[in-house]
Amino acid sequence: MPDLAGLLSGLLLRVAKHWIAGETFEDAVMRAQQSSTHNIRSIINLLGEEITAREEASAAAAEYLEILKKIDRRRIQGCISVKPTQVGLSIDESLFKDNLGKILSSAKFLGNFVWVDMEGSPFTAQTVDAYLDFRKKFDNVGLAIQAYLKRSEEDVSRIVDRGGIIRLCKGGYDESPEIVYKRRKEIDENYSKLMRIMLERSKGFAIATHDEKLIEEAARLSSVHHTDFEFQMLMGIRDKKKLELVNRGFRVTEYIPFGKSWWAYSMRRITEHKSNIFLLARSLISG
């Protein structure tokens, strides 16, 4: 009798490869090198979050240290992105700060940059506060801010006022309407508001969205404000738009995840858009 769980997992992995490079660092390198031929830089992310064992958090931090060395040795045009709970935030804040501090020190020594991802709302306040603390010592670190959070306007202002660097995304976690905007129109309006704050007051930031209207609004306003920024998009999504933006003279970076912990990430990608669900269905039918 066939192993249905194994079959489903294999099919999902096949679909997931639209959004993840694969299970190994070499897979991420191949994608990064492919993107660089089109003048698209890379953000490499080792998949994994909400780690609950200290040893696993330390192991993830150690792996990031190796990734930074490999990026440097192989002259990959890219940096890394780290999830706070991946390196210990859900276990102990001091463990998280110790692990992230080692990563930032290594990246600074190698002349590289580190993005800190934003996770679910239980970790938002700690992540923002920790980021601002790290900015006192490190200038090679940026933070993702989610536009659907109602608190984000205050967070953006705090970070910008202290010279921080923001990656502005919409947000991808299922949260209570008490703390997030649920309607797409509200999220887009808040995204636009936060983007304008950064264009007017920030020295550098990233517009991380696949939304055509918001991308073009940023492109239009950039000609007025002349702020240093880049567009960031996920691997496998809007590849033609990435090339178009590069040809128009904008800096574009692609977020490239890899690793064995691809399930949770892939499920978020699949449920974000109806087209992704149809993609999975076609794969299941074609076998």
What's the short version?
By secondary structure, this protein is of the alpha/beta class.
CATH architecture of the largest domain: Alpha-Beta Barrel
Q: Which residues sit in consecutive blocks of at least 5 with pLDDT less than 50?
A: 279-287
Q: If you consult CATH, what is the topology of the largest domain?
A: TIM Barrel
Strand content: 5-15%
**Nearest-angstrom radius of gyration?**
19 Å
Mean pLDDT: 89
Q: Mind describing the biggest β-sheet?
A: 8 strands, parallel, barrel
Number of domains: 2
**Helical proportion?**
40-55%
Which CATH class of the largest domain?
Answer: Alpha Beta
Overall geometry comes to: globular
Can you describe what's shown?
It is a single chain. The chain has 2 domains: 1-20 and 262-287, no CATH class; 26-261, TIM Barrel (Alpha-Beta Barrel), CATH 3.20.20. The chain is globular. Helix 10 (263-272) crosses helix 11 (274-286). The chain is built from 11 helices and 8 strands. Mean pLDDT is 89; it is low at 279-287. The chain has 287 residues and is of the alpha/beta class.
